[in-house]
Amino acid sequence: MTGLVEHVENALFLRKFSVRFWGLIHVFGRNSMYWFRMEQSLERNSLVGTTIPNPQQLPQHLSSDEKHSWVSGKKVYVATTVEQQCIFGVSIAENTGEKSIIIRMI
What is the distance between the alpha carbons of residues 64 and 96, in angstroms, rounded to a whole number? Predict the structure, then answer.
């Protein structure tokens, strides 16, 4: 846990309008690294965990696929889980092995 919504939502809303970190510090306190990390952590959650908190609501028939892409000059694999026209999860991995290290889960 990095912070409660009621403590950070207004500051992160202002970041949408390019309010600098020193402005957030002046109004909301903390330090620039706190607000930087808070902004970066928005992409940390998996789509499945945030959109479907109850596993019983998941569809019975999911499809998965992988695409090849490049990140910083290195080939990566983008794994997706979908059902009809809904994307449930996307992960970027360095290889296609069963125990591959996930670079980023979106």
Answer: 13
DSSP state of 42: G
CA 52 – CA 23 distance, rounded (Å):
35
Farthest-apart Cα atoms in the chain, separation: 50
Task: Work out the number of other CB atoms within 10 angstroms of the CB of residue 3.
Answer: 16
pTM for this entry: 0.43
User: What ranges do the domains of the chain cover?
Assistant: 5-43, 47-105
Helix (H) or strand (E) holding 82: strand 74-83
93 in Cβ contact with 57 (< 8 Å)? no
The 10s digit of each residue's pLDDT in 64-105 is: 777 888 888 888 888 787 887 777 777 787 777 666 655 555
How far, in whole angstroms, is CA 19 from its chain's centroid?
22
The sign of the torsion formed by the CA atoms of 52, 58, 62, 64 equals positive
pLDDT digits over 32-65, tens only? 999 988 887 775 544 444 455 666 766 777 777 7
